[in-house]
Amino acid sequence: MTEEELAELLDQLCPMHLMLNATGHVIEAGGTIRKLRPDCSVVGARFLDLFEVLRPRRVMSMEELLDAPDGRLHLRFRDDPQTSFKASLAPLAEGAVVNMSFGISLLDAVGAYGLSAADFAHTDLAIELLYLIEAKSAAMEASRNLNVRLQGAKIAAEEQAFTDTLTGLKNRRALDLILQRYLAASVPFALMHVDLDYFKTVNDTLGHAAGDHVLQEVARIMVDVTRSDDTVARVGGDEFVIVFPKLRDRKQLDAIAKRLIERLETPIGYNGEECRISGSMGTVLSDQQAGGEAGELLHAADLALYAAKHGGRAGHRFFDPSMTAPPAISSAVPRDRMN
Amino acid sequence: MHGLINRAIQSFICHNYGRECWLRVTEAAELGFVEFEPMLVYENETTDKVLVEIVRDLGRNRRDLLEDLGTYLVSNPNTESLRRLLRFGGVTYVEFLHSLDDLPDRARMAVSDLTLPALELREYALGHYTLTCQPGLPGYADVMTGMLRTMADDYGALAILDHKGATGGAEIIEITLIESSFAEGRSFELGARAG
């Protein structure tokens, strides 16, 4: 095969080839290579002046280039844009043929040089690789969006699971967790059990919608009279528990209870009707029950609440170890029965 | 049915007929949700119900509607990535047509659980082709007709497409290429990735 025939063949099959002469100068260049450097003449330039050889290291001459193991090269343009290439070198009787590909720099190269499918050999997987990059990016994006939505849904579900949906207060589950946390960390706290008085009457005479409205107002009042790090939870139909971390001052707790009763007794308007309720409270301090468990504390607060109800509604009592539950009243019995 | 297909239907209805219409359709089809997730797989009958309700709501011919869906998929900026992926098939419309044989494989390469029925292009005279769409995806050939017609514009080719109907389960689309470079077409740069 003559040199001309070889050049023709390479032009057809390898748009990214270079033919070098014995001195290491470029004597032929494929169409795509010429397109990468439209302003300078690739043909006639010394190969090692155009490209830096990244691997193998320290290739400074044509002889060293020809010595590259299996003719495998990693190259980089010396001038900008410094595109890198994979290349295979095959020696000729005089000189060599170098066939190049973009390898991993493909995506940057098609952008930098505005290449099209026609610039690649038909057998080159470049187009398939570009297709895959785009397809996988689009699929990844869709998956990422799904993950973000699922994450949002998960947070919303957890939020709901700890929230009483009617009032927006914490629910029983949340209360149990908070109590466990305080007990485990030995944070002292006061636990106040609040039961609405006359709520059943509102429900019976004005209907459930009025009752719901009253509960929402009550929730607002409770949040109002407590501090931001206190926990207000709705634990039953008209039963609430307030946890006051680091508060053991009985006077202060009593004052909060009185203020709460006062606010609860302000008539709540609903559709032109006035809903009149009140509340009774029982409070226990976490250190009143040595080694106390959450259940015991809730029970103690319950006993104090019962004592408050028993002593005439709209009252507040602190738990006292002499308090015992009457047979008919326990925390499992709906408090409405007492109204 | 793959979520990508369901999502494509949702996107098409919302864009062309408004979200109100889509909400009516999901309600009537008793989906229990209003958003299809593109990366999840749904029961085939879910898609069937949605299509039935769309046709009922819009009072349109089902096949025309599916053709419009095909047009939407390759012409709307919302789904530009799909148009770009199709353009990777070939430099000219004819090359693109020939690449359709590989379309199901290409789809699977992108999303491994997206299965499309086989397509087969035959050139029976110069500029005259038939595309055989194998069964498995109801309305496939209708959507394909809309897509191919719009892709002809995309390449700047002048082509006439005719859905010839079904023969033994498979559906045939007849494609007559009148001129391959009739107009400029839309540009396609390998490096310009759709955002």
UniProtKB/TrEMBL annotation, chain A:
Residues in GGDEF domain copies: 187-321
PROSITE patterns cross-referenced by the UniProt entry? GGDEF
Q: Name one Pfam family in it.
A: GGDEF
* UniProt-listed SUPFAM superfamilies: Nucleotide cyclase (SSF55073)
* Name of the protein described by the UniProt record: GGDEF domain-containing protein
From TrEMBL, chain B:
Please indicate which superkingdom the organism of origin belongs to.
Answer: Bacteria
Q: What start-end ranges are recorded for coiled-coil regions in this protein? A: none
- What Gene3D superfamilies is this protein classified in? H-NOX domain
Heme NO-binding domain: from which residue to which, for each copy?
A: 2-155
**Which Pfam families would you find in this protein's record?**
HNOB (PF07700)
InterPro entries under this entry? H-NOX_domain_sf (IPR038158), Heme_NO-bd (IPR011644), NO_sig/Golgi_transp_ligand-bd (IPR024096)
Q: Which SUPFAM superfamilies match?
A: Ligand-binding domain in the NO signalling and Golgi transport
Q: What is this protein called?
A: Heme NO-binding domain-containing protein
Species for this entry: Ruegeria spongiae
